[in-house]
Amino acid sequence: MQSTLVRNLGIVAAVAILAVFTVLAARERQPATSPLAGTTVAATIFPLADIARQIGGEHLGVVLLIPPGVSEHSQALSPQQLQEVQRAQIIFQIGHGLDDGLTGRLAQAFPALRLVTVDRGISVREFGEEEQEDHEKEGHEDEATEAEEDHDHDSGIDPHYWLTVPNAMKIAATMTQSLAEMDPEHAASYQRNFTAYQEQLANLEEELQEAAHAIPRKEFIAMHNAWSYWADHYGFRLVATYEPVAGRDPSLADLQRLQAIIAQYNLTTFFAEPQKLSSTVTNFVERELGLKVLILDPVGGLPETNSYIELMRFNMRSLAEGAR
Length: 324
Description:
324 residues, 12 helices, 12% strand
């Protein structure tokens, strides 16, 4: 009887000690109070998060809302992300139907958040007439679904403006001003980082223009219409897309039109996206259309595209490989 009691007490003591160590370990894993606690921002997509980190340096914590490889469609935030967003003072967003559904909901939940659309000084463009007509038709088909989509392009504006280096420079300038206003104590540091980053981007632009000039085939087809800014700026031509509207499967008529364009331009390559890659699409493109599949990534954040600069280099290399 006594030995049983002693054994039970020993078990209770062990459990109590384990509980204490578990609590202590959990406390160690929790973010410690640091200078970053008051200077945290959020960014919706990886290119914005990376640019913000380049400007902010050691004085800024950046929360990425949409993880790499995940489509911005119906993006739900984890409890950890929601906790991190509570610390943020600013959310940097693209806007124009790409991410402002998500950020609008966050702004309602956290009224102190400041939403900054980073298109200041950028000439945004509308989708082509044919695609705009498709978007308008799509908008009337299912209003309930439309209300849940973040990437519905209802404004008619093409939101993929970050995919040219000059626009990235303007995005960086907008962020620098916003960070200086939020955290004037470190404004000089943000300005120094901005100046250094602008030089890196200028070198990147020269590199990309030279590479683009050397690529003989300028026409290409892609998963969806994310590449008009890129194509216009770097001298390419997006002649067709698999998805006539982002997130909508093509009809038979869409596929027939795609086949005709492939034949017209004698295309050999289809450019998929990591966020939309599926065996169904890949198998169809390879078997039915007879094309090789390469990747163009509009968002990045994966091992080969772990910075905005590497993202842009990756895409130019991919286009060069597709033109061989």
